[in-house]
Amino acid sequence: xxxxxxxxxxxxxxxxxxxxxxxxxxxxxxxxxxxxxxxxxxxxxxxxxxxxxxxxxxxxxxxxxxxxxxxxxxxxxxxxxxxxxxxxxxxxxxxxxxxxxxxxxxxxxxxxxxxxxxxxxxxxxxxxxxxxxxxxxxxxxxxxxxxxxxxxxxxxxxxxxxxxxxxxxxxxxxxxxxxxxxxxxxxxxxxxxxxxxxxxxxxxxxxxxxxxxxxxxxxxxxxxxxxxxxxxxxxxxxxxxxxxxxxxxxxxxxxxxxxxxxxxxxxxxxxxxxxxxxxxxxxxxxxxxxxxxxxxxxxxxxxxxxxxxxxxxxxxxxxxxxxxxxxxxxxxxxxxxxxxxxxxxxxxxxxxxxxxxxxxxxxxxxxxxxxxxxxxxxxxxxxxxxxxxxxxxxxxxxxxxxxxxxxxxxxxxxxxxxxxxxxxxxxxxxxxxxxxxxxxxxxxxxxxxxxxxxxxxxxxxxxxxxxxxxxxxxxxxxxxxxxxxxxxxxxxxxxxxxxxxxxxxxxxxxxxxxxxxxxxxxxxxxxxxxxxxxxxxxxxxxxxxxxxxxxxxxxxxxxxxxxxxxxxxxxxxxxxxxxxxxxxxxxxxxxxxxxxxxxxxxxxxxxxxxxxxxxxxxxxxxxxxxxxxxxxxxxxxxxxxxxxxxxxxxxxxxxxxxxxxxxxxxxxxxxxxxxxxxxxxxxxxxxxxxxxxxxxxxxxxxxxxxxxxxxxxxxxxxxxxxxxxxxxxxxxxxxxxxxxxxxxxxxxxxxxxxxxxxxxxxxxxxxxxxxxxxxxxxxxxxxxxxxxxxxxxxxxxxxxxxxxxxxxxxxxxxxxxxxxxxxxxxxxxxxxxxxxxxxxxxxx
Length: 844
What we know:
The chain is 36% helix and 17% strand.
């Protein structure tokens, strides 16, 4: 998952040569193309570079020397392995085995160096030739098409002229397209009419808007001496028929390059003309270049077009590529689970699209939907939940959940919702989506108070919040409510906050909740049909970490409370599996499916909802899909003799098989990640300090628990970094759990969501002063700036995000730090934090 820019410059064309198979003439084509540009006449002179990233076999037989012989180009093989076998086999006995990042970064470095050598009005052409076929493995065993995907260079695919070559060429092209490559051209050598592959492939690809070309047959070199071979091939490379064909191929490559440049340059202005952005006050967009242009995304990074702000501070900014990699700090609105451009998910989507397309779901079924429902019910591990209802996004899932809960309540209590106001109970700061019903389940806020149909049907409780401040976890009541919730309480670890049996505030919470309900229900006569709550963290409301004990107590009180008399005719129900009091709806769109380190965030509260909604991470960020999961007693509320008794909700793409199949694959990948070494390292990082305080068995050599307790509350973000942030002079508090890191900056105006305190930090992180710094695309919620990892983010990449954040914060507070220079800063931090800065406890 290399952090490199897409290699697109105005003055350099970098083109990658892939083969449909080994032995199809990649090196011959690379030489033909290079020779053409060397002698090409026109308004520009072309500077040629040839790169072979990975080569196997004896060095004296390497392809670079062959290309040099006939073109005189600057040539280089980056990694040479002696054995003439597949790179993954040849690399086994090597003294140095380059990892995937090292290979990709070295290719990029060579391209960047080439740009620096191009003078005046000249242009450069860099030819990067792969080894074997499109899906041949690289040194690490990773497929070449995946290995080089972070660069996403335009491709010329050399087709297979041999028997069976039509199939292998089309398969190779589809493999590249599946991974998001642009194929500039497909070429195939004319085999003198033996199999006529080139003619078929030309027609096939041109019907799909991919240019295809035929090149003259390669001379027969059987029984040739070395000098005869040189003479024949030299004549071939300068043969008029070959030159004519190469001219057309080169024109196509050049044309595509400038089309791409034009498209990139105009993208923002075209967007401003025709797009209405979500959550955007368009009056605030002063300049067109403030609209970020993403060329592509891969792993954790966007390829983002440079602006004047992002170029500022770069040396030789004129030679910067058009794009720079920016860490996707918001996980693309919380959806990313297994990284952008994940080939497994792309293949899963293609499979389901090919097998089904879309099929309607009313009164029908298909295997991906059934399998996903079974997988979700098993993962949620909630004895109440029995039925899955599919929708398209989190807001719609919430809308469906509200319909379910309100119908169940009205039916049990014999309420007439057409003539009575039935509200919901929730928490202040919660938000459940942008459809009108979901909006009404939240208190008035910046998202909904100016929506013309919004009514705000409910009551929303104040609640204590959890935060780390100056290295200590604190449960803090809202301002002025110490008399209700007690004074702020300190905890050594986050585990202690979730240790409900050892905490003593539950009776106080229970008394407060009961008194509020008595006032609302018994004195005011208000009616409520559901408890709706985001477990643990309220996302859109500002990353509010609710005291889990308060949420757990709220569920307990609501389930035991008498909201109305139950008519005698109402069916009997079991309180262990059916709802009592009110149906409890957990909105896990943000917090579920491993976002907080657990399959279900409800498990952190040690309680089971009657309705649970999920979206975002469900498909790994690839497709919109959501699910509302309900108990049998909720389902039974819609059982009846008339169609009007049914849940009459749905949309054309309900349970679309592509999304369901992708979701099955996404969840499987995250399940595997959970059992992997990296996640266990995160758990150890957060647990090792707390183990001895709880009397657990500790390894005396490593001071780590001998066994990882699954109940540990952990984060993908380094504990030492979180502690360091919590001490910072600009930071009020910080929270970290699972993949979420939220930093609340001090705001003297105390303006909450309308605060601009975090905007400067956000912009500084996006427009870092040089390539040695990490650029981060992030979102802010008032004075809160948050960062979110995907489930596949590497420890080293997250450490880079942490370093960048600390560097920018220190620069803003007057401690101007260059990379790695922590000396002066340590003096201004508490002693224990200075130690943490030297080594943040990362495990790779």
